[in-house]
Amino acid sequence: MLITMVEEGTVAAVTVDTCSTEEWLLNSQELVPIALTKAKEVKGFLVRWKMIISKLEQVPSKLSDLSSHPCFSKNALCKEQLQAVSKTLRESIELAELCLKEKYEGKLRMQSDLDALIGKLDLNLKDCSLLTKTGVLGEATLQFNVSGFLAESDIETHGNIKELLARLQIGHLEAKHKALDRLHDIMREDEKNVLAVFCRSNVAALVQLLTATSTSIREKTVSIICSLVESGGSCENWLVSEGVLPPLIRLVESGSTFGKEKAIVSLQRLSMSEETTRAIVGHGGVPPLI
């Protein structure tokens, strides 16, 4: 694992065996002022660096919100998020130094690198807010009361599933895909436990993944959505509210054979509601289903 040590305004990445969540927090907090100072010294690519500075200035408040969350030290998601923030801050410092020394491989390459940095900062800020403001962190850390009908093994299973569901909402697309793969595998073995812990934010994340460019991801997503629809309950209303109809209709029109099959089953089940039927018609979903 790499962590950046900050001493007297210098930055150096060193290898460490283990770092606690609190240490990653401190590391990020130390990197922010260095990243800001370096960014403000750059004279070129002013529009992009102005955007970067604006986003860097938002990082301290996000870190404060994250560190004050009751689940801060109890969930791996916090530590991973801080690692991601630290990595982005190091990259910002490195790019600023390259710009200051004018040691970069062409302006177009640097513009592309700065655009990528802006995207990473956006993602870091969004994910920090998601963890602290929407209940994702609390959901993923929730401890079930060992009583009644829940065995201890069920508690562990539910906790693992909740963390996977949280991972569908944060991080870059590849990380979300890995979480989806694992969730899909678990559902094939234990669909009941997965469905038992779904909430609206998880449904919204799945709907977004329906539009992924990867056929495999779309197929796994629509398979899970089909199970949600067939399970009944509040999931049907959540799916419709989160905009599942248009991507399902597109899957029927141009998806793989498996994707079409699952999308058709989902739409047919959802169409049992008169209001949803009208919505399907409004989205042009009748011809593909005929």
TrEMBL record:
<dbReference type="InterPro" id="IPR011989">
    <property type="entry name" value="ARM-like"/>
</dbReference>
<dbReference type="InterPro" id="IPR054296">
    <property type="entry name" value="DUF7032"/>
</dbReference>
<dbReference type="Pfam" id="PF23005">
    <property type="entry name" value="DUF7032"/>
</dbReference>
<feature type="domain" description="DUF7032">
    <location>
        <begin position="28"/>
        <end position="136"/>
    </location>
</feature>
<keyword id="KW-0677">Repeat</keyword>
<protein>
    <submittedName>
        <fullName>ARM repeat protein</fullName>
    </submittedName>
</protein>
<feature type="repeat" description="ARM">
    <location>
        <begin position="243"/>
        <end position="285"/>
    </location>
</feature>
<dbReference type="InterPro" id="IPR000225">
    <property type="entry name" value="Armadillo"/>
</dbReference>
<dbReference type="InterPro" id="IPR016024">
    <property type="entry name" value="ARM-type_fold"/>
</dbReference>
